[in-house]
Amino acid sequence: MSGESDSKAAPPGITRSTAANDGSSKLVEILIGVVPPPLGMALSWEVASWCRVDRVLPGGPADVAGVCAGDTIVSMNQVDVISSSAECVDQLFDQRPLTLLVRRHAVSTKKRERLALVVRTCRPTDAMLRRMLGWAQELAPNIDFFVSVDETMQSAHATVPRLQAMQSELRIDADKVKVHQYTEDELQSVYPALLELRKKLPNGAADIPGKSGLRSMAWMFHGEPLGHWLHHLPCDGEDYSFVWVLEDDIGFSGSIQQILDAYSADPEDLISGRWLAVPEPREPRVGPGFVNGWYWYYTTTSVFEEKVAPDRRLITEEHVQRISLQLLREVDKWCRMGASACSEQLVPTVAYVRGMLFKPLRPEHIGDPFHYEAVLSEEEWAQILARDETPGRFYHALKF
User: Fold this and answer.
1) Which strands make up the sheet holding 270-272, listed edge to edge?
2) What phi and psi values does residue 312 have, to the nearest 5 degrees?
3) Nearest by Cα to 1 from 56, 76, 67, 100
4) Between β-strands 79-80 and 72-76, what pairing exists: parallel, antiparallel or unpaired?
5) How many Cα atoms are found within 13 Å in the side-chain-facing hemisphere of 85?
6) Please, are residues 343 and 120 in contact by the beta-carbon 8 Å criterion?
7) Cα 171–174–179 angle (5° rounding)?
8) Per-residue pLDDT for 201 more than 50?
9) Are 90 and 107 in contact (CB under 8 A)?
10) pLDDT at residue 48 above 90?
């Protein structure tokens, strides 16, 4: 830690030193030498907590140098950041060497962390509803459970009554399950960029609404529904540190509380799927078939394309994700300004561009299969549960 002597020498390119102490807080000067980005820390961009360090990646350059969660950055290379724009701060972060002056409060009064678990659904089977309600019963008191229902299609209007009837049948307390409902029209009124994205679907109406006619834009664009959920919460969800988001066809071989506990100390703003990668352009650009690249590569708004160079874009699987409140708010901000894309690309790209922390799920929490094209039958799922010697893994997809 800065200001404390120890026998360990700082790694090459990183040194540490301390400045004044006024009793209730102290100013700490931290010098970070020539190290490659990222520094491994996530900042708050909210007005009331501008440039406060929300989380620090253990073992990362910022952590080794002595930056602590809760620090507020006052200046960078002697440039006042309190009155600087986010763009200016981003540019300063690229400078090396980099001297941070941070204010560190002597007493931390962190309240107990609250989480939300949101299951995205439309027309779930009875087995899916039972799995959801089972998860709701397993959660600790500091975790709120939500079912987010896309009611664009008439056939989805029965989902909430079915959920509530099963909840009553299983004698699950009413306050254990919270419901969020929306339609595509409601999303488009708040996020008109969805109209542009619809025009850029690779295979047009064959993608959405598809051959069945039962898909809405929320099928591949999840940033907007999550933003809609966020703004329908009291105080825009400010009580939640992180939000877990699951698809309704996910299976988990254990108590869902187990997986939330497994990541409780992880500081990353985004934990998602098995991998995060830079997408390759698809060839050809449109049509049902393609020989190379990522199917949704060109399904981006013009604002997104102007904002993010191709080599700064990331994609990930989104069957299971943990998203920080800070990242979720930033994704919603991008969607409202029209900088949107398929959420497999939007969410990790926002995290990367804004200098946030991200990583995939740990391999020990991924079962086989876990793939968008995989389908598990009810019998196969029962066999997995019966033989699984190491419970606590996600599987995809349970379509029954």
Assistant:
1) 178-182, 143-150, 114-121, 240-247, 320-324, 270-272, 358-359
2) -110, 10
3) 67
4) antiparallel
5) 3
6) no
7) 125
8) yes
9) no
10) no
CA nearest to 339, candidates 393, 303, 387: 303
Q: How far apart are CA 190 and CA 184, in angstroms?
A: 10
Residue where the block lists tokens 């066999």: 383
Distance CA 215, CA 245 (A): 19
**180-205 as b/e, with b when 16 or more CB fall inside 10 Å?**
bbbbbeebbeebebbebbbebbbeee
Higher pLDDT, residue 127 or 32: 127
CA-CA-CA-CA dihedral for 168, 181, 327, 368, to nearest 10: 60
Describe the crossing of helices 223-231 and 325-336 by its angle, rounded to 10 degrees: 110
Place of tokens 């030193």: 17
Pick from 105, 24, 109, 17: nearest CA to 68: 105
3-state secondary structure of 198: helix
Residue 35 clears pLDDT 70, i.e. is over it: yes
Q: Is the pLDDT of residue 97 over 80?
A: yes
278: amino acid identity, one letter:
V
DSSP 325-383: HHHHHHHHHHHHTT--B-HHHHHHHHHHHTT--EEPPPGGGEEEEESTT--B-HHHHHH
Collect all residues with Cβ–Cβ distance below 8 Å to 380 and sequence separation of at least 6: none
DSSP 111: P
Q: Which domains does the chain have, with CATH numbers?
A: 14-105 (2.30.42.10), 114-396 (3.90.550.10)
Q: What token pair was written down for 62?
A: 């910022």
Nearest residue to 384 via CA among 367, 366, 363, 360: 367
Maximum mean pLDDT: which of 16-25, 53-62, 175-184: 175-184
User: Interior CA angle at 236 toward 340 and 113, to 5°?
Assistant: 110
| Residue that is written with structure tokens 């602590």 in the block | 68
